[in-house]
Amino acid sequence: MRLSTVRPACLAGLVLLLLSPAPPARAQILPDRPVAWFGGRVVIGGNVSVAAASTEDHTYFNSGTYTEDTMRLIAAALTSSIALHSRIGIEADLRVAGEPDGSHWYFRPRTLALKVQPLSTPKFHVQAGLLQTAFGTASNRAYGRENLLIGRPLIYQYATAIRGDAFPRHVPDLLHNRGLGAVAYYVVGDFFTYGDGDGSNYGYSGLPLADTSGWNAGVRVAAGGDGLNAAATVTEGSLSNPRSRGSSGGWQASGRVETRRVTGLVLGASAAHGRYLDRDLDVIVASAIDNQDPRETAFGLDAEYSRDYWLVRAEALYSRRTVPILRQPLLADVLGVSGLDVEGRYRLAPGWYLAARLGSLLFGPASDEAGSTSWDANAFRVEAGTGWSVTRGLLLKATYQYNRRDIAGPLHSAHRVAVEALAWF
Fold it and tell me: What phi and psi values does residue 127 have, to the nearest 5 degrees?
């Protein structure tokens, strides 16, 4: 739901007030840790952030779910855990965000679910409601605080040329949108009328490899013990096109396994399979020459290692989608893409750290013909910066980001400098 009535200037002022460190003589506005009530049966935490970046007119590399600029954002999150019984509780993660100029505001729950512990062991539980897909590492981290930099990893943010509410008829359609995932336009299923009307009704941007900023509706089962954890979900909505986008797609199955048997080392593997196209397109999909049941399959590997002042994370993801084929020249039977993000942090001194991230996306051919052009422009990103913990609950960041992709023209590359203030409790 978009919050068009929110006055961003007022909210920005409130955010800045909350972020202001309190003098020693008076109490802090925000607590420095989650608040517990009723003997710990109700626990509430949250965070507020304000980010600003240069090059406002070139945000194609950092476009989010609602085409918002993810590096120029005011955001707030509220998390809560409510124990209804010794084995039954409610978990919630509610978020609101938008750009400082008043555009692209939205509110959505990232998680809102009933949690049940059917056995005596707390290491086995079942959740039902609005959930995160059991895939990768980003869905398990509180985004603002755990994000070492300001930008997001490519595999979890970059908008590709494939959409969930529209699709290309043939190869020229797809290649016309190569490198334009943030504003991809397709005749089949699209609501955006270029040159015909004001363009006020438009579909969402292209799909990332994985979207963990929203929610899917379904059931999650998790278990663990002896350094080994596993989770599986069955949800309506896919890894790249979650139900929170407004999608009316089909069901998805996903799972993740991780091991923590070595001190400081976490290794994980994930898989997901499901339908990513909206059900509203079923009539058109049924007339396709091939691929009348469009599916998305993804496999992921991740690792994290921390020791002394160092923290290193790496995540690789391979995604393949089938797209309904309507006419010649034919698209490839499978459109594949491989993504990799590697990031690290080094603590210079108490409260100070340096961080960097490298990311790349490599796309497969658009057709099965030899020498075919990749179906989207290969992308590369490097971001580096520093963070300073002013107080226990206030973090300031400054970063530089460089993006590049293999297309000609003004959208070939972009340099950005950004700053962010983040407060949490």
Answer: -120, 145
How many CB atoms lie under 10 A from the CB of residue 88?
Answer: 13
**Is the torsion defined by CA of 252, 64, 153, 108 positive or negative?**
negative
For the stretch 151-181, pLDDT in tens is 999 999 999 999 888 888 888 889 988 988 8
> At residue 389, what are phi and psi to the nearest 5 degrees?
-85, 100
Q: Report the half-sphere exposure of 46 (CA within 13 A, side-chain side).
A: 18
Query: What tens digit of pLDDT does each residue of 47-71 get?
Result: 999 999 987 655 678 887 767 788 9
Residues 379, 2: Cα–Cα separation, whole Å:
30
Comparing CA positions, the residue from 35, 219, 57, 207 lying closest to residue 133 is 219
| Residue tagged 């999608």 (tokens) | 247
Can you identify the CATH homologous superfamily of domain 54-71+116-424? Porin (2.40.160.10)
Contact 293, 281 (CB under 8 A): no
d(CA 74, CA 422) in angstroms, rounded, equals 10
Helix H or strand E segment including 176: helix 171-176
Q: Between residues 6 and 270, which one has the greater pLDDT?
A: 270
Q: Is the dihedral of CA 194, 275, 156, 173 positive or negative?
A: negative
In this structure, are residues 404 and 382 in contact, taking their beta carbons and an 8 Å threshold?
no
